[in-house]
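Question thread 4412

I'm putting together a teaching handout and wanted feedback from people who do this every day. The idea is simple: show students a protein as raw sequence, then show them the structure tokens that encode its fold, then repeat with a second protein so they can compare. Below is the first pair exactly as I plan to print it.
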Amino acid sequence: MSAKLMIWISVVLSALAQICLKHGLTRMQARANQNKGIPTLVLGVISEVSVWLWGACFVLATVLWLLGLQKLELSYAYPLVSFGYVLVSILSALLFHERVDRNRWLAIAVLSIGVILISGS
């Protein structure tokens, strides 16, 4: 697998990890009763599959990031992380029906242009 592909997969997995975490925490909150202490939180985290997926995505993303970064310049790879912001915003709007206003879409467009410019270099 090429170093660039490893970096791109790492960025996508990191974004998906955030979506999994949000999903898991939302489900935990929906199941929670009035007892919101630390033991309840720990038990909820341990029993929530989406939180485990979050961890698995981050571990794999980190491994791919480390492998890809060995062969690529940091000045190339790191700005690509901003694509994760784009992906999380789009997925949040689609999956969680979060409101993304015009200014955020404009910022997402600017980030996307930057990623396109960097990835083409």
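The second pair follows. I'd like the answer to focus on this one:
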Amino acid sequence: MPLKHNNGQPVSPEKFEQTLEELIAQFHALSSFPSNVRGTWVHEGTRYQDELLRISVDVEDNEANQEFFVYFKATLMERFEQIDIYIASYPVNIV
């Protein structure tokens, strides 16, 4: 999750809390990584430098969960005023 909007203004802490609470309500668990992730990306010729909070949610790979994240991405893009939000999905074996 971006710590700043694309215009450089900080994201309000309430937006992070709301997002975390929604994920916990849906999946009953999550992990966040306390150190910031730095990212650089280019969109339509404009270069963006991001500082991000990384969140991990390990869930079953099924259609319902995939659908949740497709819709949640749209919610996050609006909430954090972003052009795009990076969400990765891959198989995980939990032992």
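Top answer:
Good format. For the second protein you could add a caption like this: The chain has a mean pLDDT of 90. The two ends are 28 Å apart (CA to CA).
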